Amino acid sequence: MSTEDRRPLRAGLIGLGMMGRHHARNLRALEGVELVAVADPQGDPHGAAPGYDVLPDARALVDAGIDYAVIAVPTQFHRDVALTFAEAGVHCLVEKPLAFDVAEAEEIAAAYEQAGLVGAVGYIERFNPALQEMRRRLADGQLGEIFQISTRRQGGFPARISDVGVVKDLATHDLDLTAWVAGSDFAQVAAFSTRRSGREDEDMVSVTGQLASGTITSHLVNWLSPFKERVTVVTGENGALVADTVNADLTFYANGESATNLWDSMASFRGVSEGDMVRYSLRRTEPLRTEHEAFRDAVAGDPSNIVTMREGLQTVRAVEAVLCSAREGRIVRPDDVAS
């Protein structure tokens, strides 16, 4: 059934902070959806929902008669708010990460599964045109065997963050997108973190990982750089794909595969050389808009493009493994992280 043939879905939004205001803008413009109510105990500081009465909590949104809700409150409140909606039979899109820790993430995922509801996690980077095209090309085998995935996510400190460190706020994006583009979960991680800005939580982390597929990974994430960088590099036997998600650019660097003329003992060595470089032309749509369209379609019956809560749970496991590794100075397997 097309969006034109069905009644508009009634949506609610809780959390009108820096991210919530963007959710409000997209929900108000989304075809086939009516934003009927918003909630935030702190009011509407950014004027994100003019003309709406700002309700106090999730229960008030339920009473407004919504079909689905978007949760954009601080991470520490995700569990209580999400469970309120699950108990009321309301589908839910939860901003990343799914929950504050593994136990809370498991509880949320189980609640939505048992209730037969659509539950998703808002990993906006998955909907970036550059990463979507990268994943498609990797699935088509453009790079052949994938050797390495590296990401860099660096910039200044966002004043909106007060309840978590850089791992749960930013590195969670890289852990999620790396497993997603490769189609393989993390098997183990080793991490180092530091605190340089005077906050209680970490503001810089370096992570080395290995996926279940054998691909090795590296991730540099911080709130301490005087520039903004969002780069994902996937290197394989046929070359490398480089995604700049700030500008939604994707570039392919081909392996020229020049033959070696070295002596026999080196004849089996497979070297690389610079080949052609291609910058792809992409249709640039706002990732958050695409994310909302995917969740709307999931509620309507097509869940094929959402980030499921089970996937969100696995990313929370990887996040906790990174924090454990940095704290204890050892390699940690996400599957061994206790609930």
How would you describe this structure to a colleague?
The chain is α/β, with parallel strands linked by helices and 339 residues long. It folds into two domains: 9-125 and 288-306, Rossmann fold (3-Layer(aba) Sandwich); 126-284 and 317-336, Dihydrodipicolinate Reductase, domain 2. It contains eight helices and 14 strands. It has an eight-stranded mixed beta sheet with strand order 8-9-10-7-11-12-13-14. A six-stranded parallel beta sheet has the order 3-2-1-4-5-6, with helices on both faces. Helix 3 packs parallel to helix 4, helix 4 packs antiparallel against helix 8 (309-328) and helix 6 (166-182) crosses helix 8 (309-328). The longest helix has 20 residues, at 309-328. The chain is globular and about 65 Å long.
Spatial order of strands in the largest sheet: 8-9-10-7-11-12-13-14
Amino- and carboxy-terminal Cα gap:
40 Å
What is the overall silhouette? globular
Quote the CATH topology of the largest domain: Dihydrodipicolinate Reductase, domain 2
Question: What number is the mean pLDDT?
Answer: 93
Short structural summary:
Helices cover 30% and strands 26% of the residues.
Which helices and strands occur, and which strands form pairs?
Layout: E1 9-14, H1 20-29, E2 33-39, E3 54-55, H2 58-63, E4 68-71, H3 78-87, E5 91-95, H4 102-115, E6 119-122, H5 129-139, E7 146-154, H6 166-182, E8 186-194, E9 204-211, E10 216-222, E11 229-236, E12 239-244, E13 249-255, E14 274-279, H7 287-299, H8 309-328
Parallel strand pairs: 1-2, 1-4, 2-3, 4-5, 5-6, 7-10
Antiparallel strand pairs: 7-11, 8-9, 9-10, 11-12, 12-13, 13-14
Helix pairs in contact: 3-4, 4-8, 5-6, 6-8
